[in-house]
Amino acid sequence: MDEFSKTEQDYLKAIYQLEEKTDKMVGITDVANYLKVSAPSATEMIKRLAKKKLVEHKKYYGVLLKPEGYREARFIIKSHRVWETFLVEQAGYQIDEVHEEAENLEHSSSKRLVERLYNLMQFPKTDPHGSEIPAERFWEGETITHDLNQAKVGYRYEVASLTQEAKDFLICLNQTPPKFITLTSVLTDGSVIARTDDDARFVIPHFQKKDWQLTYYSH
Ligand SMILES: [Zn+2]
């Protein structure tokens, strides 16, 4: 499922980026100008996307992304920005060399590959140009867990598993094992302060960090 052509992805991405600049529907001529194509071919393509329920097309008004189209546009943007980050951080590219490579790579990468790279680079918040990388997960086929030693301050994690020792420790603190935690700071002795979604805070000692298996969730 979820097979999109390169052209479809480019249109969805263009509409997404134009939508960010307006609170009205995006005009077909704006899409055509953005993609440097003729208005009739933009109209034809948008009708195709509307048939697939990826966009809503209103004659004389323009076009809007529907949830599935919005999600695919966000994925393509994530793919592009993850690749740019990878090329600079891991492959020795200069910042001004990565855009063209990423324009091609973004379309040929599966959701699994993009999420694996994102995971490998420890969930970067922005690409090398400073644009925000969408944090939502597009691949749920496997969850990769880390222990608390690899967790980063300011990130929210789903608690995948806890050892009995860690659970006992929480009971002593009158804290029920949380489903999500955000790491708020690391103390000089290596212990960390975690915050739950209901804003309870507690210290997890350094020696217990390996007892917490976490799945990255969001920034
Ligand atoms: Zn770029």
- Terminal CA distance: 28 Å
Strand-residue proportion: 15-25%
The CATH class assignment of the domain at 145-218 is Mainly Beta
Helix proportion range: 40-55%
Which cofactors or ions or other ligands sit in this model? Answer: zinc ion
The profile of the biggest β sheet is: 6 strands, antiparallel
Averaged pLDDT:
92
Return the structural class: alpha+beta
Q: Looking across the biggest beta sheet, what order are the strands in? A: 3-8-4-5-6-7
CATH topology (level 3) name of the domain at 145-218: SH3 type barrels
Low-confidence segments, ≥5 residues, pLDDT <50?
A: none
Subcellular location: Cytoplasm
InterPro entries: DtxR_MntR_Metal-Reg, Fe_dep_repressor, Fe_dep_repressor_sf, HTH_DTXR, Iron_dep_repressor, WH-like_DNA-bd_sf, WH_DNA-bd_sf
Pfam family, one: Fe_dep_repr_C
Main location: cytoplasm
Key attributes of the depicted protein:
alpha+beta, DtxR_MntR_Metal-Reg, SH3 type barrels, transcription regulation, 6-stranded antiparallel β-sheet, 219 residues, Arc Repressor Mutant, subunit A
